[in-house]
Amino acid sequence: MRLKTPAVLALAILCALPLDSCKHEPPKLTPVVVNEAFEHLLYIGLYVAKDKGFFEQQGLDVKIETGGGDAQAFSALTSGSAQFAQGDPAFVAIANEKGWDGRVVAMAVDRAAIWGVTFDKSITPFTNPIGFKNKTVATYPDPNTAYVIQKQLDEKAGLVLGKNTKILQVPFGTELATLQNRQADIAQTIEPNASQVELQGGVVAFSYADAYGPLAFTGVMTSKKMIDENPQVVQKFINAYEQSLQFIQSDFDGTLAIAQKRLPNLPPNVIRVALKRLIDSGSIPKHAVVNPDSWQKLLQIRVDVGDLKSMPERSLIDNSFADSARR
Q: pTM for the full model?
């Protein structure tokens, strides 16, 4: 009995303690806001990182807000209402010429992931941009890269805007309506819209992804101030993003399930075909590292059409976080 007394006493003391003292409080998550230009399938990397819990595993409580456009998402970043923005990375270079200091820290889409679609039976698929002759093409508004690419392709083909070809700038989400009301002959669009048009009897007339190859189309951006003052938060965010991209490459069905959850109003077969096209085309990169060649190609496009006065004198990409995440 003497041997058992200390154990019994210890048990009695433990039982007398408040129940809260026996609980292990989970570590507090760091709140982070990322503003996305739109909510669509192209941003599957962001959604996988969120829905699979990769951000939470890194100690981040990430809130995804939707700006409704590249300019709006980038404005949320520059105003400080978001720590990260996901959208057209060219805005970092454009803002740099106006004095704002930011960096592209990850690549979300590494192709011009847009396709020219049509319901016009007289238009057959083409690879030479001369096929845009005497056509009206609906694009997203300038200075979106989609508009810039269309303008450059027309110029390289020797076409003259307003004379033998026309660009119709329309808000995101209204591009397909221009085909129905015959405002445009061809509409630039993204997935899953392209696959949806095909299933409705239309065709993909032109692939911008194939025409341009690797191109920094969508990036994860942050301010230089964020990098300097909170590098550990940036690293954790990119760690989760890298994990997400690797998951997409290795688990198609798991990725498809998240895509279907995010886009519940679309038929599963449409999402399946669209997601496969994005992965197979290389639009969704295998890693978060920003391809320097893709970045330079984007900058050159912007210089050629006058959105940038000149090529930036300093590097505006920071791959240190993505390199570390990959290792």
A: 0.82
